[in-house]
Amino acid sequence: MVTKVMHKLNDVKTRAERYLSNLREAFKTLKIFKRSVDSERLLDLAKRYFEDAKYYYEKGEYVNSIVCSTYSEGILDALKELKIISFNWPKEGKEEAKVFIAGTFDILHAGHIYLINEAAKLGKVFVVVARDINVEKFKGKKPVISEKQRLYVISNIKGVYKAILGEVNDIFKSVEKVKPDIILLGPDQKISENELKEALRKRGLANVKIMRLKSKFTKYPNCSSSSIIKKIVEYYCK
Questions:
Q1: Torsions phi, psi of 75, nearest 5?
Q2: Could you give the CA distance from residue 80 to residue 88 in angstroms, rounded to a whole number?
Q3: pTM of this prediction?
Q4: How far apart are CA 99 and CA 212, in angstroms?
Q5: pLDDT digits over 143-164, tens only?
Q6: Which of 119, 159, 166, 190 has the fewest CB atoms in 10 Å of its CB?
Q7: Between 3.40.50.300, 3.40.50.620, 3.90.180.10, 3.40.1000.10, what CATH number should domain 98-218 receive?
Q8: Residue-range domain boundaries for the chain
Q9: How many other CB atoms sit within 10 Å of the CB of residue 185?
Q10: DSSP character at residue 102
Q11: What is the full DSSP assignment across 159-217?
Q12: DSSP SS3 for 124
């Protein structure tokens, strides 16, 4: 009896995960053709149902999560049928690559968004947010924003499939958890690609592809946390 109940619960959980995955893809590929007060209101409602679905899933209330997801899907399908929006559902039978990125993400800026957008072109983006204690250890100073707040912000950025906090004593533990297909490094992340490959090989992750962005995002000024902090200090010192 207990086994049957567990199987049923796992089936419901799997369905809830699938619905959430579908909606992530839909919102990721969403394009709006006709804007109006009514269409914006309905889109906002669809997004709120999606957020509710994620909330209930995290609480383990999978049936409520599925109900909220179906409401969100229904609104999106109706708007698509009316040619107000377009989007894509995930392709059946084709699993997206898992793309792993990591960083402090202390003061969010355009460079961070560029990294996430480039990662999203390669597949589902999994972000590891550095722990406060590790930031202080590696950078010699505490982050301005706490780890939980940084995680919350990153989790709610378009293009991010899932965000988690890193491990305190073993930075590679997060890679083992995610089991990515691709690790995308920022252009200025101070880690040797060869050393990373060797560390992954020792952990049975030799097939992970390591990529690095070729250049920094320079379309706008102050595309780094340090330059933003410097600008703020200069401004208020005056």
A1: -65, -45
A2: 10
A3: 0.61
A4: 12
A5: 989 999 999 999 999 889 999 9
A6: 190
A7: 3.40.50.620
A8: 2-86, 98-218
A9: 19
A10: E
A11: TEEEEEE--SS-TTHHHHHH--SEEEE-TT----HHHHHHHHHHTT-TT-EEEE-SS--
A12: strand
